[in-house]
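> call design_seq(struct)
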């Protein structure tokens, strides 16, 4: 398969892939962990000439520093089963995604220092 054909078929495959991913989610047992990781599209020096994700990727700050790309937010249980995940642009604050990710969860939720805020604590 050629690259242009792959790019042309990608929008049709994204829906079924998302549905398949939801079937792999684990069961919440009361202890969950939330975190995020950065998915850099390119080196920061090449942002202005990079065109693959033009209009989709954004410049943001992660725990390691500045990036141009996306963030993958996820929640796992203590058995390392995936409970929820969400892909956002790089400029989205981690704390804004917690209510969406944890809508169907119960019990205790643990996160790193990037998730500290009074509304999330309550």
């Amino acid at each position: 398969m050629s690259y242009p054909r792959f790019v042309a078929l990608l929008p049709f495959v994204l829906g079924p892939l998302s549905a398949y991913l939801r079937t792999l989610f684990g069961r919440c047992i009361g202890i969950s962990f939330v975190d995020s990781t950065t998915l850099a599209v390119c080196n920061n020096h090449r942002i202005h000439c990079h065109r693959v994700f033009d209009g989709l990727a954004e410049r943001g700050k992660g725990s390691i520093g500045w990036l141009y790309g996306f963030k993958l937010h996820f929640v796992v249980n203590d058995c390392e089963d995936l409970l929820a995940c969400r892909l956002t642009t790089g400029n989205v604050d981690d704390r804004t995604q917690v209510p969406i990710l944890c809508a169907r969860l119960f019990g205790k939720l643990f996160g790193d220092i990037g998730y500290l805020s009074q509304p999330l604590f309550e």
